[in-house]
Design brief:
The complex is a heterodimer of chains A (about 575) and B (about 260). By secondary structure, chain A is an alpha/beta fold. Chain A is built from 20 helices and 19 strands. In chain A, helix 5 packs across helix 6, helix 5 runs parallel beside helix 7 and helix 17 packs parallel to helix 18. Chain B has two domains: about 140 residues, no CATH class; about 80 residues, no CATH class. The longest helix of chain B has about 35 residues. The chains are: A alpha/beta (about 575), B mainly alpha (about 260). The interface between A and B is large, with 77 and 58 residues.
Chain lengths: ~575, ~260
């Protein structure tokens, strides 16, 4: 606006820019449908915009457009207009935009470039051609600004997730941009890391020195920071743009139905009675509806009959790794956990507390330095249980029937070229080993499973090409034909919106009704009420083992605040009651 | 859950930690050349001794961890030595005395000496690599290549970023294998094993490409290679220590080659 008029686009404007989007749209090269379409909003200089929407609604594409990566770096088709500080993004070289805009991504490990902290902060300044003297003073200043003073010589590998993300913020702050864009900066973080980032963002928002665009699904923490809210629905279409305190009920209803997380503060309209509710239809879990429900009474009977059988027992487990100084790092120390049929246990703890190590040890994928892990299959109705056995000594075939893992990144577990083969892979391998002929029967069974998991149309699709939510469901579907007695899940709802989370939980509920025992390692406290028990780890030791309500009432961490206030971005997800 | 050995880094300041990486690269190259131009075992013996002295006095590296670090080379050294001894042409020379007779294989004195020379060459390569790359981290090597040798930024820092994500790929590889075991798909027999390794590699490749795309986008977002002339946070200039290092390295290589026994 005035900035452009005053000095033309060559001027490096000082201060935060305003943002104006008019009918903005973008279609990635090779795609038929636009990622975003018809976005129209105006953000004042120094304001904070919170962008909300379901998975796949184009939130990250908007972030890329604001940073000029779209259309300057990535190929595709641009529509409409986007002006940042008066500069039309599609007509401004990336270099000029880059001087004004800092972009922070979700995954700390794929945005840090250098191995030393001070080199990392300096990287962006070197790229912009800063004189050395300014870098020497600017780097420590930026680190101090995010609470990382004195970290200059540290290796970025040794930082916690929260520290890495604060470093990523320091990286962009160092270049003194007028505008900050943060694309789900806390998604990979544990509650304390998330808490630290939000304190940082609150401090930045108060100073009004930056225009801030925040994409975030931890809504209870993000909403108070926002001046304005942009709601994007399915297929990248704008649902509403309004001041944060004055979003219309219709817009909230639309957002809710699109499957996004909706702030609790707004959900009064969803839960309380009154005339407004009539306008908002109840949530339909996209997949939950397609799942064959196990009749409630029958499920309880089965649980009563077989529930409570001990399936997995770890006692005094100790796991060690080689450390940087050539010594040993203890990942788990004296950990004892038991798991019974039909039970769902949440495994929580800060980054590095040993959650992944414990999952690997429980599955026999790493052999503990001390202690034992014992596992058995679910006893068939009325028959005696098999003896408990060490999973690391079972054959691949035997273990598949007893325990399954869904990894945080489902892609790493894929073994086949199509969704259908992915589902039937285990059954086929077992059949081959028994000498049975395999063929169409498995395909039919696999297709039935796929449609039950809401993936019916995607039977011939390549697993790598599915969306994040579809991949997660496929990784669960792959365990459906030969369901294991125990299922271990590493961050099963990571990156999923409310719709995706509810879909995954509905599928897990069905399995639990059939007495599967489940362990969910998670940073998302919203899942805790859907579990029967919480096991909390801290520095390799169990510090809590009990009911979720007891955990949330007094989290065993110092400070407990981030864990207690952790239920953010909506109420606990709905799930059927568990066995106990 | 890192599967790669922990990086070997200097634990104290030392003469070589104050030299620039390209100077060490030049110095190290002279030793590598000296060790391969002759089959006389005395040359690699001398260079090995010199390298040990340099590692001990001037590298700043923790000596205790060096044998462990070179252990993976042990197999290569032993097998190369054994094969060189067994297959040496000197064994066919009837004018030479037989030292050992194993079945039909006859081993002569010169064969043993050549075999040891070959094995020791690998030792020299290992130790010299440690002397070149050990005293500073890979970032300094990239800085040094860009500033002192005018290597393009895109190449030097792109390679550096790739190095940084390599440990994640090791983790991915383990996870992929674990996923297959737990789904009852562990390979049995050599044919399945080869096919399975292909599948694992494909998944790892996909994952690596995704990671690389994200990293490249993050680098672009921070103005990398945007046409602005890059400046340098850490300025590296060739100093007297560099010239001294190169001069000493050449002198040692010359002595190892030409001083008579």
């Amino acid at each position: 606006m005035t900035e452009a008029a005053a000095g033309g686009p060559r001027t490096v404007a000082v201060g935060p820019p305003s943002v104006e989007a008019a009918d903005l749209g973008w279609t990635y090269a090779g795609r038929s449908r636009p990622a975003i379409e018809g976005l129209t909003f105006r953000l004042q200089a120094g304001h904070v915009l919170l962008v909300l929407g379901p998975s796949g609604s184009g939130k990250s594409t908007l972030a890329r457009a604001l940073a000029g990566l779209v259309p300057n770096v990535l190929p595709g088709r641009w529509q409409g207009s986007l002006r940042v500080g008066g500069l039309e993004v599609s007509e401004t070289p990336a270099r000029l935009l880059g001087e004004r805009i800092g972009l922070v991504f979700q995954d700390p490990d794929s945005q840090l470039v250098m191995t030393r902290v001070d080199d990392e902060v300096a990287f962006g300044l070197e790229n912009r051609g800063w004189p050395r003297a300014r870098m020497v003073s600017g780097v420590p200043a930026a680190l101090a600004q995010v609470g990382l003073a004195g970290f200059e010589a540290r290796s970025t590998v040794t930082l916690s997730g929260g520290e890495k993300q604060r470093l990523a913020i320091a990286d962009v702050l160092a270049a003194r941009p007028g505008m900050l864009i943060l694309d789900e900066p806390t998604a990979n973080l544990d509650p304390p890391g998330m808490h630290a980032i939000f304190e940082q963002l609150a401090a930045l928002a108060r100073r009004r020195e930056h225009t801030i665009v925040l994409i975030e699904h931890r809504l209870e923490a993000a909403l108070p920071l926002a001046d304005d809210v942009l709601l994007i629905g399915d297929e990248g279409r704008q649902l509403a743009f309004a001041p944060a305190g004055d979003v219309g009920r219709d817009a909230i209803g639309l957002l809710d139905r699109s499957g996004a997380w909706v702030p609790r503060a707004w959900q009064v309209t969803r839960q309380a009675g009154g005339p407004a509710v009539g306008a908002i239809e109840p949530v339909e879990p996209a997949v939950g509806a397609a799942v064959e429900p196990v009749a409630g009474a029958a499920a309880y009977e089965r649980r009563a009959a077989g529930g409570g059988a001990l399936l997995l027992e770890a006692s005094d487990v100790r796991v060690e790794y080689g450390a940087d100084d050539g010594g040993k790092r203890i990942a788990l120390d004296g950990v004892s956990v038991s798991l019974r049929a039909g039970e769902r246990v949440a495994l929580v703890g800060p980054n590095g507390a040993g959650k992944s190590s414990l999952l690997f040890a429980l599955a026999g994928l790493l052999r503990p330095a001390a202690g034992t892990v014992r596992l058995r299959a679910l006893p068939p109705n009325g028959q005696p249980a098999e003896p408990l056995r060490d999973p690391s000594r079972l054959s691949s075939n035997e273990i598949a029937a007893r325990i399954g893992i869904v990894f945080q990144d489902p892609e790493l577990g894929f073994v086949a070229g199509t969704s259908r083969d992915e589902v039937s892979a285990t059954a086929r391998a077992m059949g081959r080993r028994r000498g049975a002929t395999t063929g169409q029967a498995e395909d039919v069974e696999a297709d039935r499973v796929l449609s039950r998991f809401g993936l019916g149309r995607l039977a011939l699709e390549i697993p790598f090409r599915l969306s994040q939510g579809e991949q997660r469901r496929l990784s669960l579907a792959a365990l459906a034909l030969r369901p294991p007695a125990v299922l271990l899940l590493d961050e099963p709802t990571f990156g999923l919106d409310r719709r995706g989370t509810e879909a995954v939980l509905a599928l897990l509920d069905d399995r639990r009704d059939l007495l599967q025992a489940q362990v969910l390692a998670t940073h998302d406290p919203r899942l805790l009420p859907a579990c029967d028990r919480v096991v909390a780890l801290d520095r390799g030791r169990v510090v809590f083992d009990g009911r979720p309500e007891a955990f949330l009432a007094a989290p065993p961490y110092e400070p407990p605040g981030p864990w207690r206030d952790g239920i953010v971005g909506g109420p606990p997800v709905e799930s059927r009651p568990g066995a106990r | 859950m890192s599967l790669l050995p922990a990086p070997l880094a200097p634990t104290r300041p030392a003469f070589l930690t104050r030299t620039t990486p390209v100077a060490r690269l030049v110095a190290g190259t002279t030793w590598l050349v000296a060790s391969i131009v002759t089959i006389d075992p005395v040359v690699p013996v001398r260079l090995t001794l010199a390298a040990i002295v340099a590692l001990w006095l001037w590298s700043g590296l923790p000596l205790r961890r060096i044998p462990g670090r070179l252990a993976p080379l042990g197999f290569a050294i032993l097998s190369l030595t054994a094969f060189s001894i067994l297959l040496s042409s000197a064994n066919g020379d009837r004018s030479l005395a037989t030292l050992v007779q194993i079945g039909p294989a006859r081993i002569t004195g010169p064969a043993i000496s050549t075999g040891i020379a070959v094995g020791l060459r690998v030792v020299v390569i290992g130790l010299t690599t440690l002397l070149v790359f050990g005293p500073s981290d890979p970032t300094r090597m990239a800085d040094s290549l860009v500033q002192q040798w005018r290597v393009p930024d895109r190449f030097a820092y792109g390679t550096l970023a790739a190095l940084r994500v390599a440990p994640f790929m090791a983790g991915d590889w383990a996870t992929i294998g674990a996923a297959r075991r737990i789904r009852g798909l562990s390979p049995r027999g050599p044919v399945e094993r080869v096919r399975e390794a292909g599948g694992r590699l494909l998944v790892m490749l996909v994952s690596a490409i995704r990671r690389a795309e994200r990293l490249a986008l993050a680098m672009d977002a921070r103005g990398f290679d945007s046409g602005v002339r890059r400046t340098h946070f850490r300025e590296l200039r060739t100093g007297w220590r560099d010239w001294l290092t190169i001069a000493v390295a050449i002198a040692v290589a010359a002595c190892a080659l030409f001083v008579a026994r």
